[in-house]
Amino acid sequence: MKLAFLITAHTDPTHLKRMIDSLPQDSVFLVHIDAKADITSFTSIISNPHVYFIKDRTNVMWGSIGVVEAQMKLINKALELHCKVPIDYFVMLSGQDYPLWSNERILSFLSQNKGKEFIVTMCMENQGEAAQLYREHRPFNYKYWRYGSLGSKFRVALRKIIYAIGIRKSIHFKANGRSYVIYKGSMNWIISPELATLALDYWENNPEYVHYFHDGFAPDETFIQTLTAHSEYASKAILMKGKFMGLESITPLHYMDYTNGTKIFTEKDFDTLIQSDKMFCRKVVTGKSDKLMDMIDQFRKS
């Protein structure tokens, strides 16, 4: 079982190194560092020959198409490596994740479930207020205007004005003659190179499809997920039915706590994390989560 870990990071190079060192070492690691960050702070401490830093970096704005752009750069590099040495799965992570399962369990689970796509798809049709964010046009969402700046305030005001006057973004759209409805899922997924190839092909060769997501909310949670739901891979993916019950309900691989933003876990959360039986957790931070990660490391060894 050969894995490629696709990692987006913007801070905490010390933790990124620790996370990479904790994962199966015969894997390959593709890392995209946000263009706003100093990449030398990462490359100076990570010398693993299996780690590949993306050179053409994106200035990522949270919740924008820039997140998908960074993912596609990672997929592109991973597929290049796949042509040389076959890879079974691409694993999408952030630089503030940490594994809860042992490497042996991760590899065994994926080997036993080979052929499945570990990406959530949940139809946002008839989801009431939960779908409201996807009915908002978000012009200039892709531009990096610092929160609180004049540009950021203009962007938010424009979004509210457009919505107030009754202009809605449809959750149904057409691209290249095909009809789609928005599906939502976690930005963390484990997919086959074949599904990744399809996603990259749409990114590069289906501008109508890509254009729809440019002013949409959090396309990293909808771009690949919608494509998967309308493809031959739908039957292999994780289809969530019923009402959307929050982000926790569509993150089967990661344990996260959104009570007050995304919680930074400490050693006090150890039992909760282990009992969750999730493969990974987020978020952990150097200097605040060190003791927790030491405890997790001991658990993973046992």
CATH topology of the largest domain, by name, is Spore Coat Polysaccharide Biosynthesis Protein SpsA, Chain A
SSE class:
alpha/beta
CATH class category name of the largest domain: Alpha Beta
Q: What topology, given as strand order, has the largest sheet?
A: 3-2-1-4-10
What's the helix-strand series? EHEHEHEEHEHEEEEHHHEEHEH
Q: What is the residue-mean pLDDT, rounded to a whole number? A: 93
Q: Rg, please?
A: 19 Å
Strand content: 15-25%
How would you sum up the major sheet? 5 strands, mixed
Number of domains: 2
Overall helicity:
25-40%
Topology:
Layout: E1 3-9, H1 13-22, E2 28-33, H2 40-43, E3 51-53, H3 65-84, E4 89-94, E5 97-99, H4 103-112, E6 120-123, H5 150-164, E7 172-175, E8 178-181, E9 183-184, E10 190-191, H6 193-205, H7 207-214, H8 223-229, E11 238-240, E12 254-255, H9 270-276, E13 280-282, H10 290-301
Helix pairs in contact: 3-6
